[in-house]
């Protein structure tokens, strides 16, 4: 188990920027690490990435110095376990709408006594061949694993106070596009009502002493969000590539 530098930074009130990627190619993760990004979020929801491929993606992240996180497609304890055992250091769970769903995520992600994560001598624990014994590793993993439910639906907004009270959750990541659609805006999150709603959610998350995260398409957007108290900003790998290509093509 490696130290979760991203979680450490967030707990110290320092912003982190990274990418959500649906590529099964470890080279993409490696390139993102060498580019200086803070985290690489494996997209296990909107992608063909398999749990077998997660292992090599995590290895590429570790080699290039970027923290491996993952969005897992469903709140399934056995699926979450496979990601964590491969060395993923944090879970972002889409579509969490109730406190019970957030509690189930914590239970699946944390070892006892904080949760019910199953134990085995896997890669995340150095196969129990490293310097830590089982008890030391369990405590270390519970401390360093990041838990980030996503807010993507009006139901989650209605239940926000209960969600914020769930013990073990580190913060929440707002999904603007799905949230906008749940509010009846099918063309995107650019509407004033959606923006006001997101701002209100961020404020509530911050007042609860938790981490607020959301998407940012550009560096300027990320800076504006950080100035408002958002500490975790993510872009898509495709979005970063398009932005960079657009800047490059201005020279033609």
Automatic annotation (TrEMBL):
SUPFAM superfamilies: Phosphoenolpyruvate/pyruvate domain. Residues 21-230 form the HpcH/HpaI aldolase/citrate lyase domain. The keyword Metal-binding applies. Keywords: Lyase, Metal-binding. It comes from the Bacteria. GO terms for molecular function: aldehyde-lyase activity; metal ion binding. Gene3D superfamilies: Phosphoenolpyruvate-binding domains. GO terms for cellular component: cytoplasm. Belongs to the HpcH/HpaI aldolase family. This is Host specificity protein. It comes from Spirosoma agri. The lineage of its organism: Bacteria, Pseudomonadati, Bacteroidota, Cytophagia, Cytophagales.
């Amino acid at each position: 188990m490696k130290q979760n530098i991203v979680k450490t930074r967030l707990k110290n009130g320092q912003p982190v920027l990274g990418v959500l990627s649906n590529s099964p190619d470890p080279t993409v993760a490696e390139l993102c690490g060498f580019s200086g990004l803070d985290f690489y979020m494996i997209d296990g929801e909107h992608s063909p990435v398999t749990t077998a491929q997660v292992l090599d993606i995590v290895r590429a992240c570790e080699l290039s110095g970027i923290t491996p996180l993952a969005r897992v497609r469903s709140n399934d304890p056995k699926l979450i376990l496979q990601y964590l055992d491969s060395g993923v250091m944090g879970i972002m769970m889409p579509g969490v709408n109730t406190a019970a769903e957030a509690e189930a995520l914590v239970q699946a992600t944390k070892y006892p006594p904080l949760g019910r994560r199953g134990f085995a001598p896997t890669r995340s624990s150095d196969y129990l061949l490293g310097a830590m014994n089982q008890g030391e590793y369990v405590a270390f993993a519970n401390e360093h694993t990041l838990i980030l439910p996503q807010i993507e639906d009006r139901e989650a907004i209605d239940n926000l106070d209960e969600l914020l009270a769930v013990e073990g959750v580190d913060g929440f990541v707002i999904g603007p596009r799905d949230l906008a659609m749940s509010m009846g805006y099918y063309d995107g999150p650019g509407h004033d009502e959606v923006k006001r709603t997101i701002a209100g959610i961020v404020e509530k998350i911050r007042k609860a002493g938790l981490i607020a995260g959301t998407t940012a398409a550009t560096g300027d957007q990320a800076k504006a969000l950080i100035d408002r108290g958002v500490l975790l900003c993510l872009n898509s790998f495709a979005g970063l590539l398009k932005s960079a290509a657009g800047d490059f093509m201005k020279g033609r």
